[in-house]
């Protein structure tokens, strides 16, 4: 089982007065004014301390006017985590927002009935208006990264395309912003990696497949590939109902990259694979906090299995995976070329555990423009890799209530508090905020927890 460990930030602070950021906050003091060590080095690379950090944001899912609490969370998480790279794992754009009504597409194979009645000139004008609105939305949630010189990569979900722009058009807009690592090529070629488009990252290469599906390599201090970062467009909707899967090209790309790369990779995508259900256990529908499975799994009710998941895992809704298994997880597990997969999509889920040697991570929404857990539980996910064991990342949710405080608005669409089972194992703070008092309290809790297990106390009772 992959475990979390407490660490202290390894990015030293430079002396001097803090600069002012566009979001109104003071920029943290850091090396060469970069929060990303990799940005300063010109490539994704483990630090001299042996650490490498990825910060993931799932399901911003907002319209042209991004909720300011979402932007505050992104900024605070970047300041707290000091990531080498930020991953946006899909559903950044709420394509169903009324602002995109003129170009809205419900399904990839459907037509916009309103657009079909327009002239070519009117259709072009509508697309330009949508592009402008999407560009404005992207600019708002990217601004904290731009201010802090943090590179980023993007893939797509089930709502981005609904605004009427396909993933190639969205990719082109993202590449207009500094720090974007999404490649221009749309033809898979594992033999010929291309330079990333981001200025200042001239030492970094990327393997391209299709918009939203590509691989980045992370090197050690000697330039040897030590870790891979695979972004996958996990699809949208299936013709027969339910959610889609990665394209055949994407699956073949994953298989080929695993065989070619000397290092294992972590996968980031929007839709979870069916194997996420392996981290749950069936339970009675009358049990408190029982959650019914989704579609192919709706014959049973589920809850978090504490024996298979990490501390602080919680389940707020059924895992909305495809009805049919595309074979993606089997590619990951059987090729021995992958160490983890991290998905979003289900806004109220936040859990992680290992199955067949693969760390599987589910992430709640970081956005305040759609449904989700209580506002204080919306979060980004931090991954910290250690060069000594690069395929066993330490992970932590950076929750709004912990790193920002109270939300500025009560308009966030949320449900009741999510169920968090009781665990015998500890949850650690990757940000290293351990005061003497907190350590003493945790020590006492550990003693009582150990005593409870030895006396046959029930795990997962929630009591």
TrEMBL record:
Name of protein: Calcineurin-like phosphoesterase domain-containing protein
Leader sequence segment: none
InterPro entries, A to Z: Metallo-depent_PP-like
Cellular component GO terms held in the UniProt record: cytoplasm
Entry GO MF terms: hydrolase activity, acting on ester bonds
Superkingdom, natural source: Bacteria
């Amino acid at each position: 089982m992959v475990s979390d460990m407490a660490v202290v930030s390894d990015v030293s602070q430079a002396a001097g007065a803090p600069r002012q950021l566009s979001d109104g906050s003071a920029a943290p003091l850091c090396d060469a004014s970069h929060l990303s060590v990799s940005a300063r080095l010109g490539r994704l690379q483990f630090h001299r301390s042996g650490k490498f950090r990825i910060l993931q944001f799932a399901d911003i899912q907002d319209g042209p006017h991004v909720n300011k609490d979402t932007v505050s969370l992104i900024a605070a998480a970047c300041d707290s985590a000091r990531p080498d790279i930020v991953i946006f794992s899909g559903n950044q754009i709420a394509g169903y927002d009324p602002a995109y009504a003129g170009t809205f597409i419900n399904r990839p194979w459907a037509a916009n009935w309103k657009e079909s009645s327009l002239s070519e000139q009117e259709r072009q004008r509508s697309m330009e208006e949508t592009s402008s609105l999407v560009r404005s939305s992207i600019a708002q949630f990217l601004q904290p990264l731009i201010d802090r010189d943090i590179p980023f990569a993007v893939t797509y979900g089930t709502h981005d395309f609904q605004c009427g722009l396909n993933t190639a058009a969205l990719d082109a807009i993202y590449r207009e912003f500094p720090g974007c690592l999404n490649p221009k090529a749309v033809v898979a070629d594992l033999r010929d990696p291309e330079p990333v488009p981001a200025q200042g990252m001239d030492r970094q290469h990327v393997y391209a497949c299709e918009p939203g599906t590509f691989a980045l390599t992370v090197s050690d201090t000697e330039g040897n590939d030590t870790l891979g970062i695979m972004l996958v467009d996990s699809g949208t909707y299936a013709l027969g109902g339910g959610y889609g899967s990665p394209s055949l090209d994407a699956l073949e790309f994953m298989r080929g990259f695993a065989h070619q790369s000397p290092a294992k990779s972590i996968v980031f995508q929007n839709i979870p694979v069916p194997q996420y259900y392996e981290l749950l256990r069936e339970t009675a529908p009358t049990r408190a906090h029982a959650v019914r499975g989704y579609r192919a799994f709706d014959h049973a009710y589920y809850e978090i299995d504490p024996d298979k998941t990490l501390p602080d895992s919680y389940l707020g809704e059924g895992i909305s995976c495809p009805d049919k298994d595309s074979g993606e997880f089997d590619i990951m597990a059987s090729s021995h070329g992958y160490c983890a997969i991290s998905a979003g999509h289900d806004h109220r889920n936040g859990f992680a555990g290992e199955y067949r040697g693969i760390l599987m991570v589910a992430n709640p929404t970081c956005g305040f423009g759609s449904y989700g857990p209580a506002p204080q539980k919306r979060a980004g996910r931090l991954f910290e890799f250690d060069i000594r064991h690069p395929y066993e990342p330490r992970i932590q949710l950076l929750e709004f209530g912990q790193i920002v405080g109270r939300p500025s608005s009560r308009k966030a669409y949320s449900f009741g508090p999510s169920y968090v089972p009781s665990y015998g194992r500890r949850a650690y703070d990757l940000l290293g905020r351990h005061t003497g008092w907190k350590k003493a309290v945790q020590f006492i809790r550990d003693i009582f927890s150990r005593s409870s297990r030895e006396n046959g106390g029930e795990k997962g009772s929630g009591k």
